[in-house]
Amino acid sequence: MMKNPIFDFAAHYTDVGGVRMHMPGHKGRALLGCEAMDITEIDGADSLYEASGIIAESEKNAALLFGAHKTLYSTEGSSQCIRAMLALIRSHGERIRKNGYILAARNVHKTFVTAAGLLDLEVRFLAPSEGASLLYAPIDLCALERIFEADAPLALYITSPDYLGNVAPIERLSALCHRFGVLLCVDNAHGAYLRFLSPSRHPLDLGADLCCDSAHKTLPALTGASYLHLNKGLPDGFYEQAKDAMALFGSTSPSYLILASLDLVNGLLADEFPKKIQEFLPLCERFKERLLRHGFTLTGDEPLKVTLMPKSFGYTGKEIAAHLRSANIECEFADADSLVLMLSPYMDEDALTKTADRLTDLFRRAPMKDAPPAPHIPRRAASIREAMLAPSESVPIEKALGRTVCSLAVDCPPAVPPVICGEVADEKALAILHYYGIDECRVRLYEKG
To answer: In the chain, which end has fewer C-beta atoms inside a 10 angstrom radius, N or C?
Structure first.
């Protein structure tokens, strides 16, 4: 049985009941009920970014479970891991003396954009393929190969699974990347559980070099619990600098409650979780099949995510979310075009039945014909860093025409920016912002449209 060194230490410290002349200020007294386990870097507790004791042991356990050469914990979500991945890529570029760039699919999380700005990385975005949307960015492998032949980037960065549950062809992307000496980096925040399918569909097993997983999204961990995974065979410097890259963006006071939850999850992943997920998958399939029989359109191929595209059934995603909410069922995400439900083997069949019953209460209406605007990459007037840090002002989007975008108020979820810092707001960009309900944005000061 796999040990849980972080949890065991905190539990023992709680049982001893000593005088806490250290942070936090609650001193282990229960207001929420979990305070006794909420400790700081006391003697024996190890230190996340200089780990050599119980945290290092636990991280090695996680690396073994995920098949990684090295796995590091984050208590600040996959956002911290994304920033660290980009920092490692930047350092790699300097080490090999290549003033390279990162090529990214357009549906990146806003953390990718801000991290690129902070690190002053050049980012080029793949032109949207046919059928793409704000959240869905399929990759044309032939077009990608032509880009690599002309000017190969330092790394290709993709989001898989995306917010709608679409899984990229990582094995084929990996083969192409490695043929041209390009690193493959994957935001796998929604796919930690893919490792425990049979066979595994985790990016590391399919050839990704770096990836982040949010344990709290699909594994039974506390919110903020995440991993940065480094695969075998990375160039010099990656393994040695990984902790420093995480520390560059991480708090010096990481939550030990979150660390303890990551530690406990290791035991579950080594024991009951693979079996539970295999037993749960048939229930997921029956749930999806029931919705399909009722006439709903589903998208995505991720097993534990159910994404309805409800306009063909005559509703917006927000209308269906309100219908579910009236029965005390809360979805993960809804907008005009989609509704996302996230499933877990730690929910019971009754929850699936109740949700399916509520959805199939709806009767079909005339299909809604309007479609979201196609993704668009505007002209770039400044680097991400220049725009992000420039003096700016907030204006209604109708007054942003011709001006350089500095930042956007992007909803989270899904936190995918329709326009990127440094791009010029043209008419197509403004149409996209309007469609997604973004009424204003920050644009560069001292600039006329």
So the answer is: N
Dump pLDDT digits (tens) for 117-176.
Answer: 999 999 999 998 888 999 999 999 999 999 999 999 999 999 999 999 999 999 999 999
Domain 44-270 and domain 275-359 have a common topology: no
- Contact, 229 vs 82, CB < 8 A? no
pLDDT in tens, 368-403: 999 999 999 999 999 999 999 999 999 999 999 999
Q: Where are the domains of the chain?
A: 44-270, 275-359, 384-444
Query: Cα separation of 18 and 130, whole Å?
Result: 63
The β-bridge partners of 444 are 392
Q: Give, in words, the CATH class of 384-444.
A: alpha beta
Closest by Cα among 172, 174, 190 to 182? 174
Helix pair 256-270, 54-66: axis angle to 10 deg = 40
Q: Does domain 44-270 have CATH number 3.40.640.10?
A: yes
Pairing of strands 405-408, 440-444: antiparallel
Q: Is 3.40.50.300 the CATH classification of the domain at 275-359?
A: no
Dist. CA 318–CA 13, nearest whole Å = 47
Distance from C-alpha of 1 to C-alpha of 3, rounded to nearest angstrom: 6
Residue 257 vs residues 36, 40, 45, 159, 246: alpha-carbon distances, Å = 10, 10, 12, 28, 19
